[in-house]
Here is the input.
Amino acid sequence: MCPKDRKPEWTPDNAGKEFASRVIEGRGEVKSTRSHHTLRSGEIDLQALERGVLSGNRTLLSKAITLVESNSPRHQHLAQDLVTMLLPYSGNSLRIGITGTPGAGKSTFIESFGLFLILQGHKVAALAIDPSSSISKGSILGDKTRMEELSRHPSSFIRPSPSSGILGGVARKTRETIILCEAAGYDIILIETVGVGQSEITVRSLSDFFLLIQIAGAGDELQGIKKGIIELADLILINKADGDNIAQAETAASELNNALHYLSSYTEGWKTEALTCSALQKTNLDEILKRIQSFTQHTKGDGSFEKRRQLQNVQWFETLLQEAIIGEFFARNQKQSTYRNLKEQISQGLISPAKALNLLLK
Here is the structure.
């Protein structure tokens, strides 16, 4: 029987043309569907990646970041070699950390402000740190899908990265990713973190300028002061100042400015202020840029900009050292099972954390 005349097995005997279903023969050969970004150590050409990143090739930049984010020991060695190769071409950007309460409109602001910056002649990289799925460890919000217009612009680069469960939402490899983006020619790096929490201050150690986005009418002003986030901010934005919410947003900004008189600024000699804006309506973006430019001029003038960068590099080293020591401890002593058992005992109140530590180190 010709293949095109074959019918499914459940077709009744003497069935007519009303049974239109047919069995279609499968293809004998299927091409590989492996992604071009899949990493195989033997296929990684560091020189090609270096040239691609330096030329601003976004595809190769993505592949380089994938290498940096890999947890494979082989990939980690290659990633560090690549970072070292590109390090001399980095450091020429302004790194802006952006945090705020959930629902404050951080992603909308990044898209509007990023497009505004591009119109001023900048190249913008947005590192949107998504919370991780507890199962796949991958991003679950998909910030790139919420920045459609910005992601299509040739002068932008958006990289949603999973936080890998790290408290505060700052991805473990964000610092290396910043270096790669700077080497690719992006002179503005926007780093969006997840929500606001006790450990969200980690973003301060990644950025030159720290921007806090709030919304009016939700008790967020007091909440921010309680958590100490406001004391770390270089500028506070009351977003969604549009429509019927303009008056409420202006009131919130005024109250915050009054509160800021009694708080010390994180950056010496700089006065942190609260401004209103609407990311949706793209209002007051020029004033925000003016404040950032004024801050950059001030900190570069008194030398604190460079000193902060130097301190951040030392903090980066200390963080890597802590991770390396812990990783080496578990790798050499095969303590994983003991560690898990002790954590279970601690959670059940059967042993104190101090006693558990002593047992683990024996």
Q: What stands out?
A: The two ends are 75 Å apart (CA to CA). Residues 225 and 259 are 9 Å apart (CA to CA).
